[in-house]
Specification:
The complex is a heterodimer of chains A (433) and B (706). By secondary structure, chain A is an alpha+beta fold. Chain A has 10 helices and 14 strands. Chain A folds into 2 domains: 181 residues, no CATH class; 247 residues, no CATH class. Chain A is 24% helix and 20% strand. In chain A, strand 4, helix 3 and strand 5 form a beta-alpha-beta unit. Chain A starts with a strand and ends in a 14-residue tail after the last strand. Chain B has 4 domains: 92 residues; 177 residues, Rossmann fold; 146 residues, Rossmann fold (3-Layer(aba) Sandwich); 191 residues, no CATH class. Chain B contains 26 helices and 26 strands. In chain B, a hairpin with a 6-residue loop joins strand 18 and strand 19. Classes of the chains: A alpha+beta (433), B alpha/beta (706). Chains A and B meet through helix 5 and helix 6 of A and helix 7, helix 18 and helix 19 of B.
Chain lengths: 433, 706
């Protein structure tokens, strides 16, 4: 069964009747609606394409309601279907099992942004009750797991309406509590033992407080960034030394370069959530990889030869934004294809930035490759409809193209690597095995 | 053997021993003590930064000298603790540390003040008093940093700081004037702990202080402990500032301990002061009783913690300052998208607070005419055109080629080793070189070309001309210097030509007022889960430095519309946009900062300051647009200390006037960034309620620190 289904009917109806992965729509007669879009300017869009501008007149098109049920281990293909026509309403149905496969975060961040920029209303319907009591008093541990992810926070930020299984309307408070009670207090980190996420928000917090330099809104130094990663490592149950070890130094370099690129190359047109996500994959000696739905197929072939039938920990770190995509920040060279331009971005010395004379100009993405090669990691890049996979090996860089649905902006760079049990740097790891 | 109890330490005499001292040294100190001091002491205490071993032979005479007075030795203990021992005939008798340390430390620090002879205390005279950096009026000001004028005192201070510094993960200090004591402690104990000081009192520059706190927090491990030292606490406001800054950023993640080295008897009891000065100190709230009685308030400089000059000459922005830029402004004031603020240069990546779109300028008929006239005036003096490798330079080179009909070389430096063989041949044969460039700012590119011509031995060169579309130096003198650079010390004749000139501040991201606005209002926006539209719209513009801002440079609060300049203004012609007014005033203020008549110069330096007269905004420039632009462009120090209070009060009142609403956003930033003296949350609410409505309750608390 596909992880994502489209269901006909009004959003007020309880989910259940899936309709074979086809888009089914309901006409949007608002007088029948239990949940109506609220008149609010909480998502002001400061460019010409405001939400009101894109709503077509009734004569041209009848607005629809689209429902997306997020199931366990939703895939890239699933989240790439999150789309709508201008003026449609979109409802996301969240279950306790809702979650995403590895390497899906980037596509999802872009898809959320796409839906938000078109939909007249975004609704989150949780098929479980929120904890009783005041939402304002909820600690991070009390929040449903789904919302402790980068995608969860992005959806919450994008939503006009949030209701739970008891029809409790949390619209007015849900994101307010996530922002003020959790994110502001943690400096931008949210997560649990399975994933840890550093949340950036355009336009006011591109650099979360935890990694902000002494100069407000100035890029943090790598050391400051690494200090924040230490906290992330601790949140994954890896102890304070995590990301401070020799092995992880390369990863923190990777993340820092990608994070810096996301800030420096951003010309954000929409407010929204992006950030860094670190997810944990624990494999046990008896695991059958083909049955682990958390792992996408193309990643499985990377893991298989390296999985030595013993308990092991793998980590997937992703920097995901909803910007223009790497290739679109470079000036085209002749009739160069988008794919070729994306590949050119990873060549040393390529940059969209002005010629500053700095020896570091154009070294960012190339440095990421070097760091990944030292870790025997693989890299997955998803950039505005183009996706590439690289089993980095020292001294060579071979990219293979991954087919993904087109039509999404945004950049996500992920690195996935095995954390070796033999590595003395990892002695403090608590794998929970 | 003297009787021991903690009351014995109520009035001890304290001595600091040099490194590697012994009990014999203790005995010698006691033996040399004058009789009066000895009698007044209830006990004797000795401090040493190195351990002291018991020596029965030395102890015997020591105990005889000390007679009935208990003698204690305080030395470093394990884990940065202090070890307190009573000297007894048979050996050291270990004492309960806390009461001993507390009493001896207090006595020692007060003794330091006493021995200093009051040099660090400023006492008020009948006709003047002091205004401390926390803006409290007081009859006494203590500058603790003045105590630290020899190594002995530093070491003595380090002894007391060690237990706190040794167990800290980061150290914050309220003033650089006492930084030496902290650094000495770190040095003695061979510690590498993150450390920083406030550059000024937070009441005057909360942004800079917040950055210091944020910088230290960024270096703290999770759960780490920040120790903050305040040299002296009066009202306790500084400690409150520190606590607030910390709580806003790190509560729950880190811990903080605030310690005051000195306090007054009247200092709030909850503050942890090592020593309280017993003299009763009176604080006067606003309105100050001393001021009311005619006593003159003398401000303490919030950065240097010295007396500031009572005299703050006030200067006016005059027509002469506006004159230099006026021709340029008038010629191009109607040109859309020419004037840009908060812009990253696409050629070199540098950030410019003030920039001009050169292609817009090139396409202006008046500029094209003047450019062509300039080229024609150079006919006969050019046989090679050189342009930097950027689009604007290439455009100018093409236009010049049409006039001179000579070769063009596109190259950034003319470095002999970087030129192609063909180009090198052309350069070697050239006698009259014209270098064209779009803008000259600092002149670094010009210097690079000159260096290459010299080092490349381009001996044919007899004339080197430099033609820029726009010269925009930061001072008039700078342009003269650039011209001299071209000719002085060289065999060739050289001429500097500019099609247009305007003096503008050369402010990068450190000084860009729009970068600082972004810092400030992004902090405001973070207080909202859903920032209001006026904030996100503005932040979206400020975030996009690639495009910069070319329409509205002024922050418009909700309900406020942009305005244009009125008729017959001395700034420029009527109906000029806010952007044009911003550039005209930026240029004028820069001219005022460099006025060759020092009495007219805007020169905010310590201890004598020429500051902006409040008359500038009261009577001289009465349009809201001009006042708003001045709020954006004038630095904090340029508003002065006393003058800034008048300016602030006047402008806050003007918010009620219908045609002055445009100043609201700029006044909001100026107050929030401490460019003007702070106002209370209550005052803020009453002044800004009409602009912020429901958002007021979320925004107002940031002014509570004032």
């Amino acid at each position: 069964m596909p992880a994502l289904q489209y269901r006909a009917g009004l959003p007020g109806r309880k989910a259940g009747a899936d309709v074979n992965s086809k888009i089914a729509v309901s006409k949007n007669y608002s007088k029948n609606r239990k949940i109506s879009p609220k008149s609010t300017d909480k998502h002001p869009i400061p460019c010409a394409q405001t939400r009101n501008d894109v709503i077509p007149s009734p004569e041209k098109q009848m607005a629809k309601t689209l429902q997306f049920r997020i199931q366990e281990w939703a895939s890239i293909e699933d989240v790439a279907r999150w789309d709508c026509q201008p003026g449609d309403e979109v409802e996301f149905q969240i279950t306790r099992e809702s979650g995403f496969r590895l390497l899906t975060t980037g596509i999802a961040i872009s898809a959320v942004r796409r839906v938000r920029s078109k939909a007249s209303a975004v609704i989150i319907r949780c098929e479980f009750p929120f904890p009783r009591g005041e939402i304002h008093t909820m600690s991070m541990k009390e929040w449903p797991d789904f919302f402790l992810t980068l995608i969860g926070v992005a959806l919450l930020e994008a939503a006009d309406t949030v209701v739970d299984a008891n029809s409790r309307d949390l619209s007015a408070n849900a994101f307010d509590c996530m922002w003020r009670q959790i994110l502001l207090k943690t400096g931008g980190i949210v997560g649990d033992g399975k994933s840890q996420n550093l949340i950036s928000r355009e336009f006011d917090s591109p650099i979360p407080e935890l990694v902000r330099s002494s100069e407000t809104n100035k890029l943090p130094s790598r050391r400051e960034f690494e200090s924040a990663l230490g906290n992330i490592g601790e949140g994954l149950g890896a102890g304070k030394r995590f990301f401070g070890s020799l092995t992880e130094a390369a990863i923190s370099g990777f993340l820092f370069e990608a994070f810096r690129n996301s800030i420096e190359h951003a010309i954000p047109e929409y407010q929204g959530i992006w950030g860094v996500s670190v997810e944990k994959l624990v494999l046990q000696s008896f695991d059958n990889l083909s049955q682990r739905n958390q792992i996408p197929a193309f990643l499985r072939s990377f893991i298989e030869p390296r999985f030595q039938r013993r308990n092991s920990l793998w980590l997937c770190a992703t920097v995901a934004d909803y910007g223009q995509g790497i290739q679109n920040t470079l000036l085209p060279s002749g009739d160069e294809s988008e794919w070729s331009r994306l590949m050119r971005a990873f060549e040393r010395g390529t940059s969209r930035k002005p010629r500053s004379g700095s020896p570091n100009r154009g070294q960012g993405l190339a440095n990421i490759l070097d760091a990944a090669a030292r870790l025997q990691a693989c890299i997955f890049v998803n950039s505005a409809g183009q996706a590439a996979f690289n089993e980095t090996k020292e001294g060579q860089s071979v990219w293979s193209r991954i087919e993904i649905p087109t039509g999404l902006q945004g950049t996500a760079i992920s690195v996935f690597w095995p954390v070796s049990n033999e590595n003395p740097d990892q002695e403090v790891l608590n794998l929970g095995l | 053997m003297p009787q021991w109890n903690t009351n014995s330490l109520d009035s001890p005499r304290v001595f600091y021993l040099r490194e590697e001292s012994t009990l014999a040294d203790v005995a010698e100190k006691i033996s040399r003590l004058n009789a009066d001091t000895f009698r007044a002491a209830s006990s004797l205490a000795f401090l040493s930064n190195t351990p002291i071993a018991f020596d029965a032979i030395a102890a015997k005479p020591l105990l005889q000298y000390a007679a009935e007075k208990p003698t204690v030795v305080l030395t470093p203990g394990p884990s940065f603790s202090i070890k307190a021992d009573l000297i007894a005939p048979a050996g050291f008798s270990q004492l309960e540390v806390e009461p001993v340390v507390s009493k001896v430390r207090k006595a020692d620090l007060l003794q330091l003040l006493e021995e200093d002879g009051g040099a660090c205390a400023f006492e008020a005279h009948a006709n003047y008093h002091f205004v401390t950096p926390s803006l409290t009026h007081t009859s006494r000001f203590m500058r603790i940093g003045d105590l630290l004028h020899n190594l002995h005192t530093l070491d003595q201070m380090a002894f007391w700081l060690r237990p706190y510094i040794g167990t800290a993960d980061a150290i914050l200090v309220d003033s650089w004037s006492i930084a030496s004591a902290i650094l000495r402690t770190l040095q003695i104990n061979r510690l590498q702990i993150p450390f920083d000081c406030f550059p000024e009192h937070p009441a005057h520059n909360s942004i800079a202080c917040q950055r210091v706190v944020e910088g230290l927090l960024a270096r703290l491990p999770l759960g780490g402990r920040l120790v903050a030292f305040v040299s002296i606490s009066g009202s306790g406001r500084l400690v409150e500032h520190i606590q607030t800054m910390f709580n806003e950023r790190a509560a729950g993640r880190f811990t903080i301990e605030c310690l005051s080295i000195y306090g007054f008897a009247s200092t709030p009891n909850q503050l942890n002061c090592f020593a309280r000065i017993p003299t009763h100190e009176t604080f006067f709230q606003d309105p100050c009783e001393l001021c009311a009685s005619g006593s003159i308030p003398i401000h303490i400089d919030p950065a240097a913690y010295h007396l500031k000059s009572l005299s703050e000459p006030e200067v006016l922005l005059s027509k002469s300052h506006l004159a230099a830029a006026k021709p340029f402004i008038e010629r191009y004031r109607d040109t859309k998208n020419l004037f840009i603020v908060h812009h990253d240069d696409r050629n070199d990546g540098r950030h410019h607070a003030f920039d001009l779109n050169m292609f817009t300028l090139f396409s202006h008929p008046e500029f094209a005419k003047r450019f062509d006239e300039k080229l024609v005036s150079l006919l006969g003096n050019v046989d090679l055109i050189v342009s930097p490798d950027h689009e604007a330079g290439k455009y100018m080179a093409d236009r010049a080629k049409a006039v001179f009909g000579c070769p063009v070389i596109i190259h950034d430096t003319l470095d002999r080793n970087a030129l192609s063989v063909n180009d090198l041949g052309i350069v070697l044969n050239a006698r009259k070189i014209l270098i064209v460039d779009d803008v000259v700012n600092s002149g670094s590119r010009l210097r690079q070309y000159i260096q290459s011509v010299r080092e490349g031995h381009y001996l044919s060169c007899q004339m080197l001309s430099y033609l820029v579309a726009l010269a925009r130096p930061s001072t008039p003198q700078h342009l003269t210097e650039l011209s001299k650079t071209l000719t002085d010390g060289h065999n060739w004749k050289g001429h500097f030509h500019a099609v247009e000139e305007i003096i503008l501040p050369n402010w990068n991201e450190e000084l860009c007022p729009w970068c600082r606005e972004f810092d400030f209002i992004s902090g405001i926006a973070r207080r909202f889960a859903r920032p209001p539209r006026w904030l996100t719209a503005r932040l979206a513009k400020l975030r996009n430095r690639t495009e910069g801002i070319s329409d509205e440079p002024i922050l418009l609060l909700p309900g406020v519309s942009s305005v244009v300049l009125g008729d017959q203004s001395p700034i420029c012609s009527g109906e000029s946009s806010s952007m044009v007014v911003m550039f005209a005033l930026a240029s004028a203020l820069q001219a005022q900062r460099n006025d060759k008549y020092l009495k007219k110069q805007l020169h905010p330096r310590f201890p004598v300051s020429n500051v902006m007269s409040p008359e500038n905004v009261k009577d001289r420039y009465t349009e809201g647009l001009i006042r708003a632009a001045l709020l954006r462009l004038v630095h904090r120090a340029e508003w002065g200390q006393l003058a800034s209070m008048q300016t602030r009060s006047f402008l806050a009142e003007q918010l009620l006037v219908a045609n002055q609403k445009i100043i609201a956003g700029e006044l909001f930033i100026a107050l929030g960034r401490s460019l003007l003296p702070p106002i209370s949350a209550k005052e803020f609410k009453s002044s800004f309620a009409e602009f912020f409505h429901a958002d007021l309750e979320i925004i107002a608390p940031i002014f509570a620190k004032g």
